[in-house]
Design a protein that fits this description.
binds acetoacetyl-coenzyme A; alpha/beta; about 280 residues; 8-stranded mixed β-sheet
Length: about 280
Amino acid sequence: MEVRKVGVIGLGAMGAGIAQLCVEAGVDTVGREISDELGERARDRIGHFLTRKVEKGTLGQAERDAAVGRLALTTEVGDLADCDLVIEAIVEELAPKRELFAELDRLTRPEAVLATNTSALSVTEIAAAAERPQRVVGMHFFNPAPLMPLVEIVRAELTGDEAFETAFAFAERIGKTPIRCHDTPGFVVNRVLIPLLNDCVRVLDEARVSPEDLDQGMQGGAGWPMGPCTLLDLVGIDVHVHASEALFEKTRAPRMAPPPRLVAMKNAGLLGRKSGRGFYTYED
Ligand code: CAA
């Protein structure tokens, strides 16, 4: 199916990044947040990153302005009724996601594709809230969405071929390299990356190594583009702990469980970049 209009629900770091990709690819996009203020904040964030591209000469000013102009903001889910594809990037909790998919299923056209960007919840459980689960699919982007090439296109138990291939083709259209997978805990990358990052944090204490040295170790010795502590600060300590808990609950594999040090950081509000302090301190 041809996607002419996209809706993005939840314009936090991931949703704003996804909306940015859509408008840059020339697709009319409706972004929904729960308040005007949060919507405007996302638009400013997108405008900022596109301005940086203009400053660096990789995007023209007119293209930048046209891209920002393609983003419409709303606080009403009903304003997404005529979208061909809706991508959900709200809070990582099953109940609100299921409620949203039931509502989207009622108000969008029956052929519209409904995608969730969940990273650790079951797409099948989210899809089960819809009358037409065949049109629900996972589109899992990686942080930061505008920079990371991968999107996992996740087939839930009842996902139909039409929805699956529409999501795959759309990911390609916005410049991503999608891969196909089935709905299993953590899908492909997080199934590997989450226990690996948990191991990294355990090593911090066991080997009595500093975050700086651990980061240097994994960059210099394993070729990681950024060290694990820097990456956890980027992803958000709370996001990572939540995803670890969700995977642990499903797999019961001890390596999936969040290390106590990360849980303590989360409880203390040391969430990484977004709170100004995690393993490192951030001024901006
Ligand atoms: N959105 C849009 N644009 C952004 C951005 C963002 N969030 N962050 C940076 N940019 C833009 C900026 O304009 C920046 O240029 P300026 O600093 O000049 O303004 C430009 O991108 C390039 O940024 P960097 O110089 O920082 O780019 P880099 O070459 O250092 O690469 C990186 C950055 C791609 C993030 C690289 O360090 C990397 O690949 N890191 C690993 C990230 C990773 O593993 N992500 C997966 C996390 S796990 C996950 O997401 C799963 C989950 O479910 C939680």
